[in-house]
Structures are given as structure tokens and as C-alpha cells.
Design goal:
Order of helices and strands: EHEEEEHEEHHHEEHEHHHHHHHHH
Number of domains: 2
Shape: globular
Structural class: alpha+beta
Number of strands: 10
Radius of gyration: 24 Å
Number of helices: 15
Largest sheet: 10 strands, mixed
Length: about 450
């Protein structure tokens, strides 16, 4: 092992808009024993807190520690669209991946070494107070156009996840690392300390990744001391406190960074979050991590073992197999005669809460004319007994149309909550009669709200 790693605090906003594009589309992956046929989004976002470079026998590894999110939207071979995500607390970049990122052309801010806007990466310091007002205005406009507006829903989903007190509990889960390290390439690594329920959820494979497996703590312990790991854990918990408690304007997402800066200043007890300023000198690579400054003139080529290809090549090479469709098992007819009224009530309650197995049906076209027509169509979809995931997709499409017309904040929030619940249900499962009744009742309430708000 080389010299002790120097962990440098570096509060940053770090986004890889397409993980597959960065890695050369290594795999489509699997989801719930189904083959993925198409990936439409594979987004990685970090509120970074520290970075570090480590020399190993194979080369240099670069680490980013913070609060992260791997979000993917994809299609199964059966035609169903799914969204999925995994919480992260670290990112490991092999030197060849780092150098590929660092040599991506900075398309709009080529004279600013602190801010990167490229096809593979968006990166900037959280605190921009040391830059001129004109430069800050330009950066905000660039980020709004290229990042915050196109990826608004994903960023809002991360902020909503942070409100859950069980999220990003690094002291309970151990590290969760998205890795391109040579032996764990394109994998998420978990700690064996993670509790059983979280293990069950996180170990399920998802689109775009080779594997989700154990080994995160073992990986870090090769290079970091116990005190290093404690400091990293405390840093992640601090970031969680900051980002879960800040206010922000959902229509102006740059406010997340502005308000995070103020909160971090309070946490750090300092008027500055960033205590460095790089020169604007033109260098061969973009400056992504502070810990990589000593390697600005060295390059590592992409190895043949991790052959790159295009998205079209990957999707064309996918092996088409008949997707397994879950069918309801044949059950004996239920005896409807009961001796006691109470027993009959209990049996009825169980039957109304049981989710049936359903065949996949194509989602009908959802109107775009007005919000009430949209909700009436979703109500019709619920009544037609589609699978829960399809209902979630209909709610998602309807919410996005309604959001573009007029902001009904309570309705949009309730729709988003149902979308998140429904999209994580096992495929080919329908709503129970109780859930169906409650959802239709909720849709009727949304329609009443919108009727009242429409001009007479």
C-alpha cells in the first residue's frame, strides 16, 4: 500500500447525467428476474463533502464521499417502464474512468476550472461566493438550463428521500459505494453490517449495473484507517443533516445550493465553505477532485478488458427471451357460508386486501387537454384493473402534465407519493379491492379540488 491517503474536504455538487454513457454501456442489467431491454435514464448525483486519491498496485483510485443517488428509468422486455434508485454514500473512480471524465470537453465554462459543464459531468463548488456577481449569474443560468430543469424530477425525488429520517444513515448501514474499481467494476458495494430489510431491498439487481454485492467496508479498510472511516461517516451524517433541513424553491432548484452554503457555514462555524481558489490556467484535464491536482499532466488509457460500446450496440446485442409473466395460481372455490357473522366479516376483509395477479395490458393514451380530463382517464385506468406499476406510470404521466399547466401542490405531492409506492411493487400485481376503492376516492377528491380552482 502507498502513502496514507489525504482526505480533503471539498463541498461540491457532482452529477453524472448518464452512468452508462460514461462507462461505455457495459450492461443493460436485470430487474426482478426480468431482462432489461432499454435504459432511458441512468443518473448519478452527489452532494459531495470530501475527495481522496489512493495509490494502489494497479493504479490510482479516486474517492468521492457524500450523499449520493443512483436513479434509473428503464424498460423490461415485456414493455413495462420501471424507475428504480439506490442511495449512495461514496463513489470510486478508477484512474482510467477519472481521466475519461476529466478530459470531457467543458462545453460552456471552459475558462473556469472550478465549474464543469460537459456531456459526462456537471460539477461545481457549493459555495460560489468568491466569484464575481456576473460569473455567479452566468453559472446559475447555465446550470438551470442544462441540469436543474431537464432533471428536475430526479433532484426533487432525492430531496424528498432526504426527508425520510431512515435515509442515508451511514452509522447504521455502513458505506454504500458505486464502484468502477477494477475488481468491482460497475457495481454497488454494501456493508455486511446493513440491516436485513435494507439488504433485501438493496441487493436486488437493477438496470445498468453488473452487480450489487457486499464488500464496501472491506474495500475501504484496505486503504483507510479506522479514524479515517469514522471521520467520513461523521461527514456524511453532517451532510444529511444539512440537506434534509434546508428550505428550497422547487421552481428554482439552484436555491438548494444557495441555502446549503448558508447551512454549511453555520455547521462549520466559518464564513466560507470553500477555502481554495484555483487559477484559470488552461490545463490538459479538467480539475474534478482536489486530490487529483498532482496528476493533471498524466493520463491512463481505457483498458480493453472494459470494452466501450454505444447504447444502440448494447440494446441490439441484448438476448431476447420470453419474459416470465406471473399468473395467478388456481385456488379452490371459497366456501361462502359461515356460522358466525364475525367470521364472514373477517374473511371479507382479508379478500378485499389481497392483491390479485394480473396480465400486462398496454397503457391507454392519457389526454393532455386539462387536469380534470387527465384525472378522469387515470380513474378509468384504475377501474380497468391494470397492474400497480402501470397505474403508477399513469399517475406519473398525469402528474407531469398537470405540473406543466398549473401547480396544485397538495395534489402533486399526493400523486408523487403514490407513484413512489406503486413503482416499487412486484410486477404483474394489481390493486386489492380496498386499495382500488381508496385510490378512486382520492382521485375524486383531486378532481373536486381542481373544479374549485378553475375559473367559473
Amino acid at each position: 500500500m502507498g502513502p496514507k491517503p489525504n482526505i480533503l474536504e471539498n463541498y461540491s455538487f457532482f452529477v453524472i447525467p448518464s452512468w452508462g454513457h460514461l462507462l461505455g454501456y457495459p450492461t443493460l442489467g436485470k430487474y426482478s428476474n426480468h431482462n432489461v431491454s432499454k435504459i432511458s435514464q441512468d443518473f448519478v448525483i452527489f452532494f459531495g463533502g470530501a475527495d481522496c486519491s489512493v495509490q494502489t498496485e494497479k493504479g490510482t483510485l479516486y474517492y468521492l464521499f457524500g450523499i449520493g443517488y443512483y436513479y434509473t428509468k428503464f424498460e423490461l422486455q415485456s414493455g413495462r417502464y420501471i424507475t428504480d434508485n439506490r442511495q449512495l454514500t461514496g463513489l470510486i473512480l478508477s484512474d482510467f474512468v477519472y481521466d475519461y471524465l476529466a478530459t470531457s470537453k467543458n462545453v460552456t465554462l471552459e475558462n473556469d476550472r472550478d465549474v464543469i459543464v460537459s456531456e459526462n459531468l456537471f460539477k461545481l463548488p457549493i459555495d460560489l461566493s468568491y466569484k464575481s456577481e456576473n460569473k455567479r449569474t452566468f453559472i446559475q443560468g447555465t446550470l438551470m438550463r442544462n441540469l436543474f430543469i431537464p432533471y428536475k424530477d430526479i433532484i426533487l425525488e432525492l430531496m424528498e428521500t432526504l426527508k425520510n429520517p431512515q435515509s442515508f444513515q451511514a452509522n447504521k448501514t455502513g458505506p454504500i459505494l458505486l464502484s468502477t474499481q477494477w475488481d468491482n467494476y460497475n457495481q454497488i458495494l454494501l456493508s455486511s453490517e446493513t440491516d436485513y430489510e435494507m439488504k433485501a431491498n438493496y441487493l436486488n439487481p437493477t438496470a445498468g449495473l453488473n452487480e450489487i454485492t457486499f464488500g464496501s467496508k472491506k474495500q475501504l479498510e484496505q486503504y483507510f484507517s479506522y479514524q479515517n472511516l469514522q471521520n467520513i461517516e461523521e461527514l456524511i451524517l453532517k451532510l444529511r443533516r444539512v440537506y434534509s433541513s434546508i428550505d428550497y424553491d422547487p421552481m428554482y432548484l439552484f436555491s438548494i445550493l444557495v441555502n446549503a452554503t448558508l447551512k454549511l457555514r453555520s455547521e462549520l462555524g466559518s464564513s466560507k465553505v470553500q477555502n481554495f481558489k484555483r487559477s484559470d490556467e488552461k490545463l490538459p484535464k479538467e480539475s474534478i477532485f482536489l486530490s487529483a491536482e498532482s496528476r493533471m499532466n498524466s493520463f491512463v488509457d481505457w483498458p480493453d478488458i472494459f470494452r466501450r460500446r454505444t447504447k444502440a450496440e448494447l440494446e441490439k446485442s441484448a438476448i431476447q427471451v420470453k419474459t416470465k409473466i406471473y399468473k395467478p395460481e388456481e385456488t379452490e372455490k371459497e366456501n361462502i357460508r359461515y356460522k358466525k357473522f364475525g367470521e364472514e366479516q373477517e374473511d371479507f376483509k382479508i379478500r378485499t386486501m389481497k392483491r390479485p395477479m394480473v396480465d400486462v395490458k398496454p397503457l391507454p393514451i392519457i389526454p393532455t387537454s386539462n387536469s380534470i380530463d387527465i384525472l378522469l382517464k387515470i380513474k378509468e385506468i384504475v377501474n380497468n384493473n391494470l397492474e400497480i406499476r402501470s397505474i403508477g406510470r399513469a399517475l406519473e404521466i398525469g402528474r407531469d402534465y398537470i405540473k406543466s399547466m398549473i401547480l396544485h401542490s397538495n395534489v402533486l405531492w399526493e400523486m408523487s407519493r403514490n407513484i413512489n409506492l406503486f413503482q416499487h411493487v412486484e410486477p404483474n400485481v394489481g390493486l386489492s379491492s380496498k386499495e382500488k376503492f381508496e385510490l378512486i376516492d382520492q382521485i375524486d377528491k383531486w378532481i373536486n379540488i381542481m373544479n374549485k380552482k378553475q375559473p367559473s
